[in-house]
Amino acid sequence: MTNPHHDDTTPARRQATDAPARTERFENPGLPPHVPRRADEDPKAAKRAEIQVVVLFTLSALASIAFVIAYFAIDPDLKGYLLGIGEINLFHLAIGITTAVSLLGIGLGAIHWAKTLMPDEEVVEQRHPQVSGDDDREAVAQTLSHGWRSSQLNRRSAILGSAGGALGLFALPIALPVVAGLGPRPQGLYTTNWTEGTLLRIDPSNAAIRAGDVTQGSVFHVMPDGWVGHEAVEEHGAEEAMIAKAKDQVILVRLDPSLIKSQKQREWGYEGIVAYSKVCTHVGCPVALYEQQTHHLLCPCHQSTFDMTDDCNVIFGPARRPLPQLPITVDGDGYIVAAGPFREPVGPSFWERERPGLMGVE
Questions:
Q1: In which band, very low, low, confident or very high, does the pLDDT at 178 lie, cut at 50, 70 and 90?
Q2: Could you tell me if 268 and 284 are in contact, meaning their C-beta atoms sit under 8 angstroms apart?
Q3: Please, what's the b/e burial string for 323-335 (b: 16 or more CB within 10 A of its CB; e: otherwise)?
Q4: Separation CA 119–CA 200 (nearest Å)
Q5: 51 pLDDT above the threshold of 90
Q6: What is the C-alpha to C-alpha distance for residues 35 and 311, in angstroms, rounded to an integer?
Q7: What SS3 class is residue 336?
Q8: Beta strands in the chain (DSSP E)
Q9: Separation CA 57–CA 43 (nearest Å)
């Protein structure tokens, strides 16, 4: 009698039964049949596609020319109102739109050209030895020649000319800002609100500073009189106050006079008290980290380090210029005032920065 719960299959038989069935091989179906496009069969459709491509490339070229015109014709400070956005800089809006249209025309023209006129048949290239013989080279030359002819550039010179013009003119929006110095000369960096007799005030408390209050190792972040806090916004407007905040900021430190190495630094300071621009000469970040033991000033953005005992020369980091020094003295009441303006532009480097006479100082 057979036990219904007894498995009389051997392990080998069970393994063969459980193994997955081997997939049968099948023939390579190959590439699907080529479906011709309308432009392949209808000369009129091909001509329309050619005209459309030329229009797109021409639109790109016109936008590049419009970029150049806008770059020189529109005041960079001109403001306008755009519905849904609010106040906007019209100079930035104009160069942004013209750049976008120039690039969009090239992209759409190339895509439309490829989809309607250029060959779209799929080709399979079999593997072959890496070393090419004369026959293979001849075949490649024939293939390239065939590709040139099938691209229809030899018969559609309008596309070739318009594409070349669009690509050539598109270089203008890229090259012009570089050649022109990324905009007008930064006139604002030549002048600040520091003049002879300007009182130094602590930012943001607006308190004046007596020389006796500046102890050795102490640090004050100061602004010129009339440009601190809400009073500056109310008197000069928010935009002017913001610009002043960006370029007029100064750090005031008292050093041991015996540690100062530069004669100019001594003459432009007062009893070891020196004042330097806080605007980093690398990319304009505020240099506000002072190490009391080493007398180093550090920029938090890219770690440029300046030695305050040696005319704020750079000792580490990407900055390549020392921080400009503000000459200071004291008035009759003992308050620290500026002995004159900065003698060089503050902030990052730019072309012609060191040309004599730019700030009235030879």
A1: low
A2: no
A3: bbbbbbbbeeeeb
A4: 73
A5: yes
A6: 76
A7: strand
A8: 79-82, 86-89, 200-202, 219-224, 250-254, 273-277, 289-291, 296-298, 305-307, 313-316, 328-330, 336-338
A9: 21
- Cβ count within 10 A of residue 224: 23
130: left (phi over 0), alpha (psi -120 to 50) or beta: alpha
Nearest to 335 by CA among 246, 213, 220, 252: 213
Residues 50, 158 contacting (CB under 8 angstroms): yes
Residues 218, 211 contacting (CB under 8 angstroms) = no
Two structure tokens written together for 152: 């229809």
Nearest residue to 55 (alpha-carbon basis) of 256, 47, 242:
47
**Structure tokens belonging to residue 290:** 């002072």
CB proximity list for 283: less than 8 A, separation 6 or greater: 301, 302, 348
Are the beta carbons of 215 and 254 closer than 8 angstroms? yes
Q: Alpha helices of 19-119 — where are they, by DSSP H?
A: 38-41, 43-73, 90-116
What's the token pair of residue 241? 């106050």
pLDDT at 226 over 80: yes
Go through the chain and tell me how many residues it has: 362
Query: In the predicted model, what is the mean pLDDT of the chain?
Result: 84
Q: How are the residues of the chain apportioned to helix, strand and coil, as percentages rounded to the nearest 5?
A: 40, 15, 45
Measuring CA to CA, which residue among 278, 339, 334 is closest to residue 308?
A: 278
CA-wise closest residue to 102 among 174, 170, 162, 160:
170
* List of residues 6+ apart from 229 with CB closer than 8 A: 203, 204, 206
Which two structure tokens, joined as six digits, stand for 6?
Answer: 């007894």
Over its C-alpha atoms, the chain yields an Rg (Å, rounded) of 36
Among residues 162, 144, 171, the alpha carbon closest in space to that of 67 is found at 171
Q: Which residues pair with 273 in a beta bridge?
A: 254, 270
Q: What global pTM score does this model have?
A: 0.53
Six token digits for residue 156 = 């559609």
Most confident of 23-37, 125-139, 145-159, 278-292: 278-292
Q: Which residues are 275's β-sheet partners?
A: 252
Encoded amino acid at 269, one letter: G
